[in-house]
Amino acid sequence: MRTFGRGSRTKTPLPLAPARIVAVGGGFGGFHALRRLQKLLEPERVSLTLVAPTDYLLYSPLLPEVATGVLDPRDIAVSIRQTLRRTRTVLGHVSSIDFGERTLRVEGRDGITEVEWDKLILAPGSVTRQFDIPGVAENAHGLKTLSEATFIRNHVLAQLDAADSLPDTPAGRAERIERLTVVAVGAGYTGTEFVAQMQNWVKGIATRWASIDPSDVRWLLVDLAPAVLPELGDKLGKEAMDVLTARGVEIRLEVSVASATATSVTLTDGTVVPSRTLVWGAGVAPSPLIAKLDLPTEKGRLVVEPDMTVPGVPNVWAIGDAAAVPDLALDASKPTPPTAQHAQRQGVQVAKNVAASLGVGESKPYFHKDLGLVADLGGFDGVAKPLGIPLKGPVAKFVARSYHLYALPTAAARVRVATDWLYSTILPTRVVNLDQVRAEDALIAKAQGQ
Ligand SMILES: Cc1cc2nc3c(=O)[nH]c(=O)nc-3n(C[C@H](O)[C@H](O)[C@H](O)COP(=O)(O)OP(=O)(O)OC[C@H]3O[C@@H](n4cnc5c(N)ncnc54)[C@H](O)[C@@H]3O)c2cc1C
């Protein structure tokens, strides 16, 4: 008998061949599951494989800061090969799973691979939720990938460039309005942080164009819900709304988008907004992989037991945005919300449960009391509710940034992000447009790997 990893655990004798543990998805859930498994189980006992389309964990809460150029895209892309050294990475999308044969079909750039597993962790996350609204798939850009964040930044800069050089004619003036109007849909943290941070950034740089005053740029935040940032409660939602309104952002609640074209957005109340920039942050839907599995789902998320096992299919667990993990800390009849906070902790707990299935430690249900949310509104503004304490202004901003530094998974990522934050306060704001992402690569459908 030997002990291994954190804490002293009694271990069963090694099996003849190492168990093959495979995780699908290298986001918060999959990454943290594999990282913990590396600590819990020695190499002779298990082989670890990750199947994911990218070789990095994307720290998505900081995507709006990539869109504003405060952070470099690589700051928030944490290398999987550098961090999960014992894990083999297979790059590609899982297109189907055979639970009887215990195989996965992976579609990669260089063709199709079959991967075999003994224990499977499903963590394919979520995609931007689209509604069947005419013109949205073709004209809206999500904010879930690095390509999308980089594209939106370049696109907004290109609109300022083009608006600045338009002739002062009726047609030129009409086009100028389209180019200087940004519509963001979704007043949850994605849409709200995006609008707040972009508006603050553009306000600071607009004077660099000869004919543009910051007040010429029109910002609209649209949501079907009656409140901004409902996750933070009425008081902080109102606070965020006041900050945005004071900066000139128009907030249109209890309306949505009826249709969109390349040059306009029509709202459900009939208003036609001339605009060439539509950003879609109206929630998420589970990865399309889940619907292909022919297993019970709850609002599209895979139904799992409190210990995150998938009922009816032995040796399979599911976590994160793609799974409906019962929220035992709040209300066991509801799933945990789709947040990084839960996905990361579910990853750690699922690793322990998978190890327990191999005779190391014991399996436990997932239990985590939400620590609250933070929202950075750009400049010195923010709203946050850590451990239920409502905070606003610079204090909230400080808490938000401290939380992100704590939650980033490697010291290198923390140093890179902190350094860029420091540079962004003492150096001039970055305004160059490297134009390195094509518009078609940043459409929602493309971001979903379709
Ligand atoms: C702009 C933005 C801001 C956010 N801010 C916050 C915040 O402040 N706090 C918070 O807690 N949460 C926040 N979130 C939510 C958080 O990012 C998600 O809840 C979290 O990423 C979910 O983790 P996950 O592991 O389930 O999925 P993800 O992190 O999305 O990872 C899923 C992985 O699976 C891969 N994948 C998908 N399909 C397949 C397939 N078929 N085969 C193989 N791999 C596949 C994906 O490429 C990805 O690597 C934010 C999200 C966004 C977009």
Write a compact overview of the structure shown.
With 450 residues, the chain is α/β, with parallel strands linked by helices.
Written description of the protein model:
The protein is of the alpha/beta class and 450 residues long. It has two domains: 19-53 and 92-128 and 285-357, FAD/NAD(P)-binding domain, CATH 3.50.50; 136-282 and 372-445, FAD/NAD(P)-binding domain. It contains 13 helices and 28 strands. The strands form nine sheets. The protein has a five-stranded parallel beta sheet with strand order 5-2-1-9-22, covered by helices on one side. A hairpin with a 2-residue loop joins strand 7 and strand 8. Helix 1 (28-40) packs parallel to helix 10 and helix 5 (146-164) packs antiparallel against helix 6 (170-179). Bound molecules: flavin-adenine dinucleotide (FAD). Residues 24-30, 51-54, 60-61, 63, 93-94, 123-126, 143-144, 189-190, 287, 289, 320-322, 338-341, 343 line the site of flavin-adenine dinucleotide (FAD).
